[in-house]
Amino acid sequence: MPSLEEELFPSTPGKFKIERSHNSMNRQFHRCFASTSTMFLWALFLIALTASYLSFQSFVDSGSRYFSASWGGIQWEKQVRASAQIHRNNGMSVLVTGAAGFVGTHVSMALRKRGDGVVGIDNFNSYYDVSLKKARRSLLAASHGVFVVEGDINDAKLLAKLFDVVAFTHVMHLAAQAGVRYAMENPHSYVHSNIAGLVTLLEACKSANPQPAVVWASSSSVYGLNVDVPFSESDRTDQPASLYAATKKAGEEITHTYNHIYGLSITGLRFFTVYGPWGRPDMAYFSFTRNILQGKPITIYRGKNRVDLARDFTYIDDIVKGCLGSLDTSGHSTGSGGKKRGPAPYRIFNLGNTSPVTVPVLVSILEKHLKVKAKKNFVDMPGNGDVPFTHANITLSRREFGYKPTTDLQTGLKKFVKWYLSYYGYNHGKGKL
């Protein structure tokens, strides 16, 4: 009987017999190994499949806060159709995203007032006071008959349903995660809303039949570290100073791609520091007003060498005029069934006031209208993504659709303060919020 050494190293007499035995063992080993490998691969596949499922479930669970709103049904469809009904000759039917937001509310009211059909969508996130968003929704419903669907633009099924119920001629895309500084706390919310949400919406638009024309809110923040003033659409925008600005710049590149490949008519609007009644509480003029009324100190940032920050503050009514002018001149998308049939318009415009004002001057105007002196703390601007100044060149928007801002900061802040006192109240030195 051969030894173990002989079996492993067949170099002794009887080599042929031992090698034949060895080959037989090799075949058995390979068959066994092949069988084991197959089982191992299947095990890996099942593990991967399970992990993928669990990951998907985790995504669904984590995203439930975005897609939790109920929608659908006969009554819901009736509300959507009624809100989308056009009441003027050659009118348009517009889906307004972020309709319960600051700009979205004002644009929806203006469209409805002139007889266009409007359906809104908003996810009512908690970035700032949700009750203010709900109050705007009530204003739209009660005074203008605009139905705002509670839902997220990342919900592809909801968007598909809306386009199935209504053949929208236009989309006014204003939904976004706003704010420069908040990006340092919650960067993923900007990617979710400003990039993923935009792509989901554009996918719905390119697949719709007919394809709508799309007007959407970019931002003056895309000019980033640009030092050429006033900011022109032809200036470089590849040096963003904040994640918010980066997502808006990414949005401009993404929309260009969908225009080029799918024939979507797309207009991007670079807003410059919008303010006014029903505004956003996170904006400086809004928080200054609240704190001044409550007797709390306000923080005023200064740039390098104690240079005052300046902004091209643009009143909401002027922004609305620009939005409607962009919709009216947007042209038509040229795709059908997701296929491009010809070139479609692609445009980008600045919407600003063209008259930058320093923050200390803004505060002095608020003090005048509030009749209260502010307690001021001047500090150096932190590295949080803010830029020292903004200034819009509006030559292009003026030429293309007659954009012309008419409200100066003094007048605009007076209207804002009147609304603020009416909405929140003010009693013996204590503002209510």
TrEMBL record:
<dbReference type="InterPro" id="IPR001509">
    <property type="entry name" value="Epimerase_deHydtase"/>
</dbReference>
<keyword id="KW-0812">Transmembrane</keyword>
<feature type="domain" description="NAD-dependent epimerase/dehydratase">
    <location>
        <begin position="94"/>
        <end position="329"/>
    </location>
</feature>
<keyword id="KW-1133">Transmembrane helix</keyword>
<comment type="subunit">
    <text>Homodimer.</text>
</comment>
<feature type="transmembrane region" description="Helical">
    <location>
        <begin position="32"/>
        <end position="56"/>
    </location>
</feature>
<protein>
    <recommendedName>
        <fullName>UDP-glucuronate 4-epimerase</fullName>
        <ecNumber>5.1.3.6</ecNumber>
    </recommendedName>
</protein>
<dbReference type="GO" id="GO:0050378">
    <property type="term" value="F:UDP-glucuronate 4-epimerase activity"/>
</dbReference>
<dbReference type="GO" id="GO:0032580">
    <property type="term" value="C:Golgi cisterna membrane"/>
</dbReference>
<dbReference type="InterPro" id="IPR036291">
    <property type="entry name" value="NAD(P)-bd_dom_sf"/>
</dbReference>
<keyword id="KW-0472">Membrane</keyword>
<dbReference type="Pfam" id="PF01370">
    <property type="entry name" value="Epimerase"/>
</dbReference>
<keyword id="KW-0413">Isomerase</keyword>
<comment type="similarity">
    <text>Belongs to the NAD(P)-dependent epimerase/dehydratase family.</text>
</comment>
<keyword id="KW-0520">NAD</keyword>
